[in-house]
Amino acid sequence: MLVDTGATYSWVSRRTLEKLGVEPARRARFKTMGGEIVEREVGHVLVEYDNEEAPTTAVFAEDMDGNVFGLHGLESLGLEVDPTTHQVRKSQALLAL
Predict the structure, then answer these.
(1) Domain membership of residue 30 as a residue range
(2) pTM for this entry
(3) Is residue 77 part of a domain?
């Protein structure tokens, strides 16, 4: 899955989330890069990376939406993207404030 630090939440196809048994928790409005406002259902999922698990929010993406792993999921797992190599890595430390 593509990591997108510009996306707050992860966007996962509705079919995939439904197959995993994820239930919508609410609807939310999102502004697209083109300035359009779209409304989508969101739910809560557990994500795993390198044998660590954390909760995050996932948007039920429709067919025309992209599928990306967003910033909330990265931060929940204590991860960041190295600006030089563009690789995902463990954060050195989490902000306390």
Answers:
(1) 2-90
(2) 0.88
(3) yes
